[in-house]
């Protein structure tokens, strides 16, 4: 086990993911949590995450001193290294202009187990060089006594340090991001060679673990699962089945904001998985009328979230079900990060990117408890578990679809007429991606409705109709994403089909922005 002490970085969960990909269980606790949790976990090593604060500020988050007494290896990353330096007697300076952001080259100046044999190239003087990714403003100017400088950047800034006696290390760069090419090797060296962790974190063990936990938490209570038909809720449903038998019902809400043939797909899934007790509630009108006049994206998310909760409230209080004690949701890790929840846990200012409506607790009046059994898993881990549980490939590799559905793919106010247009455009795009065998090579693709009129010609007539944007991205973790270089002839075909088959569209555009600075969804 590796404990990641979280100082509020948006990459904390990525560190966990990297460690788990090495087959080692890893969990993050906030820096200010009760230290008894550290003892309970009894980790083989500790990673101190990055974070948005500065060690030069007052009341900055700090390392619980007990950590230095546990006699286990420690690796500080970015802020984690700086706070280690500050607490062990070195110096960190705030600098307006000395920070490093993006690519950097680190020269290895001292042999050390953390990086021995790990490098990208050698320079003219024979020094080994690591290509890394940095994101820091403060700089370590003096390392604490008993430490060595192991690596320096091209601007002579301290990039790697190691204690002379203990297994205490610090790296200024981010080994967890893919842009640090040998980042995984460095993490592997720390986890496997230095902390001596073995690789037990595999789908079969994860499944056993979740089943055991759900069984212990839920006991004989009755449960309702918010079921969307996506991979996250399908996996959650199957895990529930194994954990508590038939003591649950899956509720699918048709909010009128779904993709083209979602309801038909659900019907055939329902037939195949009858034992999951899937119930479908048709509530299209309710959502669409609640969205009238709402244009702000966050507001739209809130409205969809609120109506969704109201529908669940009515359902659990109805005669159809009795004694429901838990609402279960298939929330995964990235939903939690993007909603700023981990920052909230840390008492630092939450930097909410988008509030995902399936995250963030339930209103007290609901008198029901919330359970999110796969909250600590990443999408790719959920997919592996889905395969292991025997889910069909088209469910496992289905692109993610946001909870608020087309409400965040229609810019501005949502209208039924816009939903119908968007649904058709999206269906054409996805169908063509499948025809060309591109669907599974892309991580997410969809159409967006732009409520602006644009001039076109049809026969001899001028048409003044709407614009559709197409979006396709490649991403590993949905935290960063690159737009996909789709072939021109493919885009040509999709565009032609959309303007010819949908009367009310006159123009199609392709989105070539990556995340960051854009996000995957347009709203
Ligand atoms: P962004 O647009 O934030 O998307 O780059 C990252 C991933 O999250 C999905 N997404 C959402 N999922 N509720 C959801 O359940 C939401 O409000 C929401 N907003 C974005 C998005 O589709 C992508 O996979």
UniProtKB/TrEMBL annotation:
<feature type="active site">
    <location>
        <position position="174"/>
    </location>
</feature>
<dbReference type="Pfam" id="PF00958">
    <property type="entry name" value="GMP_synt_C"/>
</dbReference>
<comment type="subunit">
    <text>Homodimer.</text>
</comment>
<dbReference type="Pfam" id="PF00117">
    <property type="entry name" value="GATase"/>
</dbReference>
<feature type="binding site">
    <location>
        <begin position="228"/>
        <end position="234"/>
    </location>
    <ligand>
        <name>ATP</name>
    </ligand>
</feature>
<feature type="active site">
    <location>
        <position position="176"/>
    </location>
</feature>
<dbReference type="InterPro" id="IPR017926">
    <property type="entry name" value="GATASE"/>
</dbReference>
<keyword id="KW-0332">GMP biosynthesis</keyword>
<comment type="function">
    <text>Catalyzes the synthesis of GMP from XMP.</text>
</comment>
<feature type="domain" description="GMPS ATP-PPase">
    <location>
        <begin position="201"/>
        <end position="398"/>
    </location>
</feature>
<dbReference type="GO" id="GO:0005524">
    <property type="term" value="F:ATP binding"/>
</dbReference>
<keyword id="KW-0547">Nucleotide-binding</keyword>
<keyword id="KW-0658">Purine biosynthesis</keyword>
<dbReference type="InterPro" id="IPR014729">
    <property type="entry name" value="Rossmann-like_a/b/a_fold"/>
</dbReference>
<dbReference type="GO" id="GO:0003921">
    <property type="term" value="F:GMP synthase activity"/>
</dbReference>
<dbReference type="InterPro" id="IPR001674">
    <property type="entry name" value="GMP_synth_C"/>
</dbReference>
<keyword id="KW-0315">Glutamine amidotransferase</keyword>
<keyword id="KW-0436">Ligase</keyword>
<keyword id="KW-0067">ATP-binding</keyword>
<dbReference type="InterPro" id="IPR022955">
    <property type="entry name" value="GMP_synthase"/>
</dbReference>
<dbReference type="GO" id="GO:0005829">
    <property type="term" value="C:cytosol"/>
</dbReference>
<feature type="active site" description="Nucleophile">
    <location>
        <position position="78"/>
    </location>
</feature>
<dbReference type="InterPro" id="IPR004739">
    <property type="entry name" value="GMP_synth_GATase"/>
</dbReference>
<dbReference type="InterPro" id="IPR025777">
    <property type="entry name" value="GMPS_ATP_PPase_dom"/>
</dbReference>
<dbReference type="InterPro" id="IPR029062">
    <property type="entry name" value="Class_I_gatase-like"/>
</dbReference>
<comment type="pathway">
    <text>Purine metabolism; GMP biosynthesis; GMP from XMP (L-Gln route): step 1/1.</text>
</comment>
<protein>
    <recommendedName>
        <fullName>GMP synthase [glutamine-hydrolyzing]</fullName>
        <ecNumber>6.3.5.2</ecNumber>
    </recommendedName>
</protein>
């Amino acid at each position: 086990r590796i404990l990641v002490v979280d100082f509020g970085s948006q990459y904390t969960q990525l560190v966990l993911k990297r460690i788990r990909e090495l087959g080692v269980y890893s969990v993050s606790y906030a820096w200010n949590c009760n230290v008894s949790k550290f003892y309970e976990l009894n980790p083989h090593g500790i990673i101190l995450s990055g974070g948005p604060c500065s060690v030069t500020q007052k009341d900055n988050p700090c390392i619980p001193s007990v950590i230095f007494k546990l006699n286990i290896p420690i690796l500080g990353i970015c802020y984690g290294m700086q706070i280690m330096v500050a607490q062990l007697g070195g110096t960190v300076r705030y600098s307006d202009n000395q920070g490093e952001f993006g690519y950097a080259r680190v020269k290895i100046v001292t042999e050390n187990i953390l990086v021995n044999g790990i490098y990208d190239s050698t320079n003219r003087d024979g020094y080994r060089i690591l290509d890394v990714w940095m994101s820091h403003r403060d700089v370590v100017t003096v390392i604490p006594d008993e430490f060595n400088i192991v690596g320096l950047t091209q601007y002579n800034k301290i990039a790697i340090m190691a204690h002379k006696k203990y297994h205490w290390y610090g790296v200024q760069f981010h080994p967890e991001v893919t842009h640090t090419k040998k980042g995984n090797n460095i993490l592997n060296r720390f986890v496997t060679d230095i902390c001596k962790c073995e690789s037990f974190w595999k789908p079969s063990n994860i499944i056993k673990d979740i089943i055991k936990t759900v069984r212990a938490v839920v006991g004989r209570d009755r449960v309702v699962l918010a079921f969307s038909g996506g991979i996250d809720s399908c996996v959650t449903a199957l895990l529930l089945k194994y954990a508590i038998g038939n003591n649950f019902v899956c509720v699918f809400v048709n909010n009128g904001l779904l993709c083209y043939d979602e309801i038909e797909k659900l019907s055939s899934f329902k037939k195949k998985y009858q034992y999951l007790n899937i119930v479908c509630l048709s509530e299209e009108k309710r959502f669409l009328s609640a969205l009238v006049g709402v244009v702000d994206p966050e507001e739209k998310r809130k409205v969809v979230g609120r109506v969704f909760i109201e529908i669940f409230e009515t359902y659990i209080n109805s005669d159809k079900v009795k004694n429901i004690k838990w609402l279960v949701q298939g929330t995964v890790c990235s939903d939690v990060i993007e909603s700023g929840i981990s920052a909230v846990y840390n008492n630092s200012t939450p930097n909410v990117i988008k509030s995902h409506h399936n995250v963030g607790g339930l209103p007290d009046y609901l008198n029901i408890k919330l359970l999110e059994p796969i909250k600590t898993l990443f999408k790719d881990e959920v997919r592996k578990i889905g395969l292991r549980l025997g889910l069909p490939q088209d469910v496992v590799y289905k692109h993610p679809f946001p909870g608020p559905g087309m409400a965040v793919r229609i810019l501005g106010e949502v209208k039924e007429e816009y939903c119908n247009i968007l649904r058709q455009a999206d269906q054409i795009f996805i169908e063509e991606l499948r025809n060309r065998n591109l669907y599974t090579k892309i991580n997410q693709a969809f159409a967006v409705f732009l409520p602006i009129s644009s001039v076109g010609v049809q026969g001899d007539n001028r048409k003044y109709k709407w614009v559709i944007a197409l979006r396709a991205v490649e991403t590993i973790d949905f935290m960063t994403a690159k737009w996909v270089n789709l072939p021109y002839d493919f885009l040509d075909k999709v565009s032609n089909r959309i303007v010819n088959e949908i009367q009310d569209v006159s123009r199609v555009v392709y989105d070539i922005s990556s995340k960051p600075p854009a996000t995957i969804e347009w709203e």
